[in-house]
Amino acid sequence: MRGKKTMSLVKSRYLVTSERAYRRADGTVVRLGYLSRRAQVFSVDINTADLLRSGAIDAIPAAKRKELARLGALVDAQVDERGEVLAGFRAGSGSLRRRSFTIMPTAYCNMGCSYCGQEHYKSRHSAERAERLLARIEAAMDHKETELVTVTWFGGEPLMAYRLIGEMSERLVARAEATGTRYHSQMASNGSLLTEHKLRYLHDSCRLRRLDITLDGPQEIHDRRRFLKNGRGSFERCVGVLGKVAHDDVAPGLSINLRVNVDQENEAHVTTLLHDLAAAGLAVSRFTVQFMPVHSWGNDISAVELEARSYARRETEWLRLAADLGFGWHALPTGTKTTACTATTRSSEIHDPEGQVYSCSEHPLVPGVRDTGVIARTEDLTATELRPEGTFDDWYDQVENSSQPCNGCPLLPVCGGSCPKLWREGHLPCPSFKFNLQERLDLVAVRRLGFRTAESGVHAGR
Ligand code: SF4
Ligand code: SF4
User: Fold this and answer.
1) Do the Cβ atoms of 181 and 227 come closer than 8 Å?
2) Which residues contact ligand 1 via a Cβ below 6 A?
């Protein structure tokens, strides 16, 4: 009789361990592991962690090996993990279970931000076009495979078309209820036209569940970078409304993400912005802050990478402050991706106010590339047909067959490759957590898990 074959285990290619050691409340010294394949953080005693790091898997006691295999930190050596991850992305990108529609209800914006690449104009509303688009989304809800439909209201400034958003949403909510399809919406807004009443309505009647608002600095800086076309600023009014929303818990199911676009002009003011927002009452868990680097991209990727690293260092300080002040914060992604972006799945599509359909969000309203990104017109698509392929729908074949970094990146399952367009243009689109992962693990260890750094016995990052 043959003996049972023992599986040979190796460290998952999607596991990153902390360089720093931490002391738990019971005195055990551990390292953290971040397993991007499951988007999970776990702690492991330092001896085991060091064997894992050195690849001496056979020296890890059998019970521990079993536990690490259960977590997914150790995998069967015969398994092609990268192949499985890429297959998962292909399946996610091709699935009809989730359909996503980005709608630009207007091409106009009341702001004239210095760095905006869009060209805004007063587009004429067409009831016929809106009807065709609604019929298309309703058909998606009717599809037996579709479980979730999301709409992202995008612009221009979507709140310039507040009434239209309400009318379209009420139709979509009614169809979602009739078909038992999960439905919610999200919006990217400049915040200048917000009122408590509008937020309440958007939340209650339009199922708005996430709102992204960009604030680029304290009042003076924000109003200089993101000025209204009538010459006025909007910071005070916008933050005032958000303060009341936080205080009175208006639209309680709505998460509000405060996005800060950071470049050399405003990086020195981010700390003041966070203190100002906290003073206005926004430092509560439903308000998250998200920092986005605005790179001055050059052709030389190594130069950009250095810049990305220095940005990432500063970002860690801001994240730490945001956590201290009481804002919601995400140290590391808590979910794996099904696809990189709208451009990599035919289940997502973007509709501009003229009825043109795009796969990539960097084309609509952008002079010079606007026409090259059009893949269809809404009226040419049958209601049940997926959008035609765009330039990046074969993204995961490109990742598999190229030597570009995503292919071997330990963070691929939670990143998806970020932005195929930027890769193709020779830029480095990696999210900042690629560069400050260790500092982010420090934040998780100390702020979330209550560990102390093992070396000094003081809280990390203080
Ligand atoms: S974009 Fe960067 S972080 Fe994302 S998978 Fe590719 S190499 Fe990794
Ligand atoms: S390719 Fe880049 S710019 Fe285009 S939709 Fe994807 S993330 Fe956005």
Assistant:
1) no
2) 405-406, 409, 411-412, 415, 417-418, 429-431, 434
Domain at 166, CATH number: 3.20.20.70
Q: How many distinct structural domains can be found in the chain?
A: 2
Neighbours of 168 (CB within 10 A): 22
Name the domain boundary from 380, 402, 424. Answer: 380
Tens-digit pLDDT profile for residues 368-377: 888 889 999 9
pTM of the full predicted structure?
0.91
**Looking at the domain assignment, is residue 325 inside a domain?**
yes
Over residues 296-350, the pLDDT tens digits come to 434 344 544 557 888 898 999 999 999 999 999 889 999 999 999 999 999 999 9
Quick one: 327 and 270 in the same domain?
A: yes
Give the pLDDT of residue 3: 52
Statement to judge: residues 47 and 180 lie in one domain: no
Answer yes or no: do 186 and 262 share one domain: yes
- Taking CA atoms only, the protein residue closest to ligand 2 atom 7 is 419
Among 396, 415, 428, residue to substitute to test ligand 1 (most atoms within 8 Å of Cβ): 415
Q: Which ligand is nearest to the CA of 406?
A: 1
| Integer Cα distance of 89 and 111 in angstroms | 37
Residues 209 and 144 in one domain: yes
C-beta of residue 254 within 8 angstroms of C-beta of residue 203: yes
| Contact assessment for residue 406 and residue 399, using Cβ atoms and an 8 Å cutoff | yes
- In angstroms, the CA 323 to CA 284 distance is 10
Q: Whose CA is nearest to atom 4 of ligand 2?
A: 360
Residue carrying structure tokens 């409340």: 25
Domain that holds residue 27: 9-80+435-453
Q: Are residues 28 and 164 in the same domain?
A: no
Indicate if 327 and 353 belong to the same structural domain. yes
- Same-domain pairing of 200 and 340: yes
What number is the average pLDDT over the span 404-425? Answer: 94
Q: What is the rounded distance in angstroms from the CA atom of residue 145 to the CA atom of residue 134?
A: 19
Distance (Å, whole) CA 443 – CA 462 = 10
Residue 413 lies in a domain: no
Residue 213, ligand 2, Cβ within 6 A: no
Is the pLDDT assigned to residue 5 strictly greater than 80? no
Q: Which two tokens stand for residue 194?
A: 């917000």
Whose atoms come closest to the Cα of 100: which ligand? Answer: 2
pLDDT at 384 over 70: yes
Q: What is the pLDDT of residue 456?
A: 47
Is the CB of residue 415 below 6 angstroms from any atom belonging to ligand 2? no
Rounded to 5 degrees, φ, ψ at 51 are -65, -40
403 is a domain residue: no
Residues 46 and 100 in one domain: no
Give the closest ligand to the alpha carbon of residue 418: 1
Average pLDDT, rounded, for the chain = 91
CA of 433 to the centre of ligand 1 (A): 10
Identify whether 429 is part of a domain: no
Closest Cα to atom 3, ligand 1: which residue?
A: 430
- Ligand 2 centre from 302 Cα, in Å? 22
